[in-house]
Design goal:
Elements: H1 3-22, H2 27-36, H3 40-48, H4 57-67, H5 70-77, H6 79-82, H7 87-95, H8 99-110, H9 116-139, H10 155-166, H11 174-190, H12 195-220
Length: 221
C-alpha cells in the first residue's frame, strides 16, 4: 500500500540530492542532514540558504523550525494512537512522522484499521527511501545536471496531490482546503520567506475545525 508513495518520496529525494551536490554539500553532509533532519520541505528550504564559507546557521535553523511547525499539529493528532506507549517510544515514533506517512496513517485510523505498527512501519520505509535516494542523487548528480529534464521536479507536487485526493471525504473538505490555499497564496504575496506554509496550514485547520463545529451543532439541533 505504501510502496508507491515510497517511490514518489525517492523521486524527489533524488532531486534534493542533486541540488545538494550543486550547492556544495559533501556526501557525508547529505547523509547527516537526511538521516538526522529527515524533513524534505525544510531541507529544500535549507538548500536555498546554503552558502558554503558563510553559512547562515541561525537563519537556516529558524527557517527549518518554522517550516516544521506543522509537525506539532500532526504529532498531536497521533496521540490517541501512541498515547499508551512510554515517552521514549512515543518520541521515537514521532521522529519518523512525515507528511505522506501521517496522511496515510490518519486514513487508516478513520477506517478503524490504524495501528502503531502501520505508523512506524511506513515511517521507517519513508526514512530509508529518503535517505537512500538523497545519497543516490548526491553521488549521481554529475550525470543528472538538470532534474527538470526528467520530470523529477514534479514528483514532490504529484505526491501531495495524490495524498490530498486520497483524503477527500466530500464537499465539506473544500472549505478548509480553499481557505488554507487562499491564505497561503495571500501570505506568499505579502510576506517574504516560507511563512505562507505555516499561515496556510493554521488558517486551513481553523477553518476546518470551525466548519466541523457548525456541522455538529446543526446535527444536534
Amino acid at each position: 500500500m505504501f510502496l508507491p508513495v515510497a517511490v514518489s518520496i525517492a523521486a524527489y529525494g533524488v532531486v534534493w540530492g542533486v541540488l545538494a551536490g550543486q550547492a556544495g554539500l559533501s556526501v557525508l553532509e547529505v547523509a547527516l542532514m537526511s538521516g538526522l533532519v529527515f524533513a524534505g520541505a525544510s531541507q529544500f528550504v535549507a538548500l536555498d540558504m546554503w552558502t558554503p564559507g558563510n553559512l547562515p546557521v541561525l537563519s537556516i535553523v529558524i527557517a527549518a523550525g518554522i517550516v516544521n511547525l506543522r509537525m506539532l499539529l500532526m504529532s498531536a493528532t497521533l496521540r490517541p494512537l501512541v498515547g499508551h506507549l512510554s515517552l521514549p517510544k512515543q518520541l521515537g515514533a514521532m521522529f519518523f512522522v512525515s507528511d505522506e506517512q501521517w496522511a496515510m496513517t490518519m486514513a487508516e485510523v478513520r477506517k478503524g484499521t490504524g495501528s502503531v505498527a502501520f505508523l512506524i512501519g511506513t515511517g521507517v520505509l519513508s526514512w530509508f527511501a529518503w535517505m537512500g535516494s538523497t545519497l543516490c542523487g548526491r553521488v549521481l548528480g554529475a550525470f543528472i545536471d538538470d532534474p527538470t529534464k526528467y520530470g523529477l521536479d514534479f514528483a514532490f507536487t504529484a505526491t501531495f496531490l495524490a495524498l490530498l485526493l486520497g483524503m477527500w471525504r466530500g464537499r465539506g473538505d473544500l472549505v478548509p482546503w480553499i481557505v488554507g490555499a487562499l491564505a497561503a497564496i495571500l501570505t506568499s504575496k505579502l510576506i517574504e520567506g516560507n511563512w505562507y506554509i505555516i499561515v496556510g496550514g493554521l488558517v486551513g485547520s481553523f477553518a476546518g475545525a470551525l466548519a466541523e463545529t457548525i456541522r455538529e451543532r446543526r446535527h444536534v439541533a
